[in-house]
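Changelog-linked ticket: zinc ion example.
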Amino acid sequence: MTRETNPPHSSVTPIRIFDTTLRDGEQSPGATLNLQEKIEIARSLEAMGVDIIEAGFPITSQGDFDSVRAISQELQTATICGLSRCVPRDIDRAGEALQGGANTRIHIFCATSKIHREHKLKKAVDEIIRISVESVKQARQYTDDVEFSPEDGSRTELDVLVQITQAVVEAGATTVNIPDTVGYAVPEEYGHIFAHVREQLPMLDEKGIYLSSHCHNDLGLAVANSLAAVQNGCRQIECTINGIGERAGNASLEEVIMAMRTRKDYYSQYQTGIKPVKLFPLSRMVSKFTGLNVQRNKAIVGENAFAHEAGIHQDGMLKERSTYEIMDPTEVGIPKSKLVLGKHSGRHAFRERLADLGYHPENKILQQAFEAFKTLADKKKEVYDEDLEAILDEQLGQTRKLWELERFQITSGSGVIAMATVVLRDSAGVQQMEAATGDGPIDAIYSAIQKATGVSVTLEDYQTRGITKGKDAQGEVCVQVRHNDRIVRGRGLSTDVIEAGAKAYLAAINRIKAVNGD
Ligand code: KIV
Ligand code: ZN
């Protein structure tokens, strides 16, 4: 407890958490997730207590369609949502993807602000309202749960916002989300929008319609704006793990949740179903799968969020933790001890530990991961959480291995042209051997892999880091390669950094081939 202020309210207002981490546009270029990764994240979001998961934008690609379909078929508790423009074929595609799902929602959006009406849509307010109403009615043919978003809502004239909200609710929308699409709003203003719409439309409360916030972080105000909305009648918060998203990102789920928990004196009235202990593992998983590293000093889940370096702070902490710490790191799932398993650990312990880390892989992937763990445990005395995450990341990221690295040999040294020989094995078990020279061992091995696979790519980014400490530490290499104007990423892991680099490059090439449908 840090400060005694407003006494907690007695009544409880449930707040729904709507997660858009899986929306493709919410990730950076090259961070596109594959189906297995999306399913794994969705399972963890559900296990954490997220109410609604937006699993994709079905009209945009077969991959998005498939992920909405697979996730809506599998998950039984969370509501699975498909995104759609106010375009009849978009809505049909979203409806088709969600068919047979246990709890489904279609989320449709249409821009409403003057800037968007005049420059983007070139349509008048009446026309926009007409299209939106028709779209809501069409979506209602697929599901009773329809969300409508007036895009750029925070910059839309208040009277237009009220008009369109009334029209879409009368047409059957059950949630109206008012997005701060460009991250321009400030908390007082954003909160006022919700208060105004509710005041003008008593029918919202009468009909049990949810108002929702969706805030972008261009001014660093996404979380503050979301909380201001809640205090003014918003009952659903849209957010993402690690705050990933378009441009500067969206409101960070973990920050919203921990702000409400930590400042109960302001927010005790509001309750979500989120289990905070799952926040850190999920943050790690999303960061691994997307390749988007979490900033070290990011609130709640950054590496430094609970580190105390200054002497005065350390002294204070030793005397009394609350002098400098407002949350307990174990509350958000940051483990006290990182050492987990060793060579003699069995399958059961392995699976339990994975579950603690937020992974619930299906049997086949679990078995492959267990074998990879045993191989690693033979090489390394101690296997850490980070090692397990990396193994899972590798298994889930490469479920369709078109080529595997069988073996390689490098000749290099000062004054010697580096030369690499690689032996790859394709999915039919056929081996392919190639050799190439290069400006160093990595350049040489990458040229040899290009020759062996016949796939030509340009290396755009290469990053390496130690996953664990010590002389037998595992190293991770993350690469981004360009292929036909598309950026694709790959990760590789090994106790040998050149092998990790080769695996990362091959993972990216496998991804390209998988997306091309080869
Ligand atoms: O930011 C935005 O306006 C959106 C809509 C699709 C809701 O993401
Ligand atoms: Zn958005």
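Closing comment: Example verified and attached. The chain has a mean pLDDT of 89. DSSP finds 18 helices and 18 strands in the chain.
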